[in-house]
Amino acid sequence: MAAPSLARDWDMEPAANMQTAQGLLQIAEVGLGGYRMSIAGNFIVEFEAYGVDITGAIPSDDFPQYVLLEIDKGGGSCPYLFRLLDLTPGRKPFLTGEFGNCSAWPALKIEGKNISVVFSSSHDSNAEFVLYDSGRRRMRTQ
After folding, report:
1. DSSP calls for 45-95
2. Is 22 in a helix, a strand, or coil?
3. How many angstroms separate the first and last alpha carbons of the chain?
4. Between 31 and 16, residue with greater pLDDT
5. At 3, which helix (H) or strand (E)?
């Protein structure tokens, strides 16, 4: 496997980490505007963003299986988007695509085998409800 492009020529500084159901989740800042994410030392993805942070987790105590990531895009009207990381034991880690309605404080909760992310309405966006089906690894927005 080729070396990740952002990490090749830049120093990395830790930005966030958390013990999860599949090991240590590490997010490192790489150069200017880059972030690299790994689980238990294994590369997962690189982001180009102004910031990447862990916003929520289920369960919220020890060794979460689902982690909500906040991606700071730096836009004035809609700076934040989100991605959900599924770390179900025995399965390959799965990272959803970006979602959100520009609200900075979503509520994350589990409903059976589904994870819901609820965004409140803001001055220029409607409330949004995102449901992640962990069995099928699919997102649905309502």
Report:
1. EEEESSEEEEEEEESSSSS-SEEEEEEE---SS--EEEEEEE--TTS--EE
2. coil
3. 38
4. 16
5. none
pTM over 0.90? The answer is no
Round to whole Å and give the CA distance between 43 and 115. Answer: 24
79: region left, alpha or beta (phi > 0 left; psi from -120 to 50 alpha) = alpha
Question: How many Å separate Cα 43 from the centre of its chain?
Answer: 14
> CA-CA distance, 119 to 86, in Å (whole number)?
19
Q: Cβ(15)–Cβ(53) under 8 Å?
A: yes
Tokens standing for residue 55: 């916003």
> Cα separation of 14 and 108, whole Å?
25
